[in-house]
Amino acid sequence: MENGSVLVVNAGSSSLKFSLFRLDGAAALQLDAHGQLDGIGTRPRLTVKDGTGRPLADRAFALAEAREVKDAVAIAVAWLQEQFAGEPLRAVGHRVVHGGAEHACPLLVDEPVLAVLERLIPLAPLHQPHNVAAIRMLRRTQPNLPQVACFDTAFHRGHPQLADLYALPWEYHEAGVRRYGFHGLSYEYIASVLPQVAPTIAGGRVIVAHLGSGASLCALRAGASVDSTMGFSTLDGLPMGTRPGALDPGVLLYLAGQRGMTAAALEQLLYKESGLLGLSGVSNDMRVLLESDAPRARLAVDYFVYRIAREIGALAAVLGGLDGLVFTAGIGENAAVIRARIVQACAWLGVALDAEANARGGPCISRAGAVSAWVVPTNEELMIARHTLALVAGAPRLPDAAC
């Protein structure tokens, strides 16, 4: 694969994110375009920037043109093929949230693989249907175009068994009721760049905080995931924008038994009405909450920090200590005040903040001699493009790949 492009697709219920990476003869990947089609099914709008951030497109579409994810994929592909006509599309890599217990590696998509991904929809109802819909649309319209599924669960498949168990009858574990972990593509990217960005901790005990609308922590030992705060679903662990994080199962029994909530109503509550939004009653956006004087907005921020600090302590116990703490994703990369509060809460682990470095955004935000803390931007799209290129073109896999 000497020239052409790799397209990366991340399909959601109401938005489609995509990136186009250009190949060269050395199998390098250069970002040509990054875009998003928001408002699918309501007010569709396509925005695209080039690799330097220069705007390339900003266009609204009629509702009838983008009612579903498949429509958004068609719009994005058509725009890219017109804009970059000299760069033939060689392959598409998809972020797929759930790969199940068996899949620790990206896969070329065929019908048997798609059947497996569809069976996993109940385990990730907020994401998986849209991931699958994007793949199916391209298989129908461009059947000869190779597509690669890259799983958010795959990076965690090397966990020790104890980290993935629930204390339920064994038959449920064998049926797939286990802790999977998510945000794996983000954690895999961070692990891949730590040897260059923070070589003193790359081979040690590191906790990575992926803090965004979805949020989780991952414990790394020598760059490999050994535990994560997310479990069976993307609901577990930390509080998030609209998801509650860890919740006593008795709450659900009460809501179903005493409040008469159906499974559909519980799903709506847990995925879309809880978390920072539910606690604050103001917003699921951390930027809005930090600017708000509403008492419940402050409470939601306090709870977010409290739970993160608590879970960092738990993962530090799993690791047997801590050599480094890494912040990434939207909140982790941009909210200096949240980073400062988390580091302060983790002072007992030996982390000490350099306030000026934190205000600058790092990369290192800790004082000399302390357990180090870092800000490292994630790049899930590049991770997917690398996997896609490796699988389709036969390029060498990443050094730590277990596939």
Pick out its properties:
403 residues; alpha/beta; Nucleotidyltransferase, domain 5; 2 domains; eight-stranded mixed sheet; five-stranded mixed sheet; 13 strands; globular
Topology:
Elements: E1 5-11, E2 16-23, E3 29-38, E4 45-50, E5 55-60, H1 69-83, E6 89-96, E7 107-108, H2 111-119, H3 128-141, E8 147-151, H4 161-164, H5 170-174, H6 184-197, H7 199-202, E9 205-211, E10 215-221, E11 224-228, H8 249-257, H9 263-272, H10 275-280, H11 286-291, H12 295-319, E12 324-328, H13 329-334, H14 336-345, H15 355-360, E13 372-375, H16 380-393
Parallel strand pairs: 1-6, 6-8, 9-12, 12-13
Antiparallel strand pairs: 1-2, 2-3, 3-4, 4-5, 7-8, 9-10, 10-11
Helix pairs in contact: 1-3, 6-16, 12-14
Quickly describe the structure.
The protein has 403 residues and is α/β, with parallel strands linked by helices. The chain contains 16 helices and 13 strands.
Notes on the protein architecture:
This protein is an alpha/beta fold and 403 residues long. The protein folds into two domains: 5-151, Nucleotidyltransferase, domain 5, CATH 3.30.420.40; 199-378, Nucleotidyltransferase, domain 5, CATH 3.30.420.40. It is built from 16 helices and 13 strands. The strands form two sheets. Strands 5-4-3-2-1-6-8-7 form an eight-stranded mixed β-sheet, sandwiched between helices. It has a five-stranded mixed β-sheet with strand order 11-10-9-12-13, with helices on both faces. A hairpin with a 4-residue loop joins strand 4 and strand 5. Helix 1 (69-83) packs across helix 3 (128-141). It is globular and about 55 Å long. The two termini are 21 Å apart. The mean pLDDT is 93.
